[in-house]
Amino acid sequence: MDLSMFDDSIRFIMMLQDRLGVRTSASGGRMYLEFLDILHETRTEHISDISSMEKVGSLLRDYPDLLAEYNAFLSEGFSINSIPDGSKTLVILAAPFGSATYQYSQSKLEEWTFTPLNQGRNGSSPTFLRCTCRLNYEH
Hints:
Elements: H1 3-20, H2 26-43, H3 49-59, H4 64-70, E1 79-85, E2 88-95, E3 98-105, E4 108-119, E5 126-128, E6 131-134
Antiparallel strand pairs: 1-2, 2-3, 3-4, 4-5, 4-6
């Protein structure tokens, strides 16, 4: 890791601690520790990069500025964004092979959509296919 990336990492961690209120809020402290656990799982390869992005997106969905900063640490072609939409929040993961949108309502995952990017029949034109899943928490 070069020195500028190290400096960016430290700056991001300090921003994360400040925005989550780590020093003043128990819930902020729990979120911060959960974030560090996700990084550890990714670093030790217990979870994939995509799973890591899903977990970070879910954890920081109410902090679009932090997710925008987090993008600097993702591999080229990958991104994660959060968009508040009234009472719902959309978290969008993009990767070279497709994108996924997660819709949260009242802190629960309500729906997700995955759009893979597949090669078209002639091998040169991409075709997008869509898959949607709606989650129901009622029993």
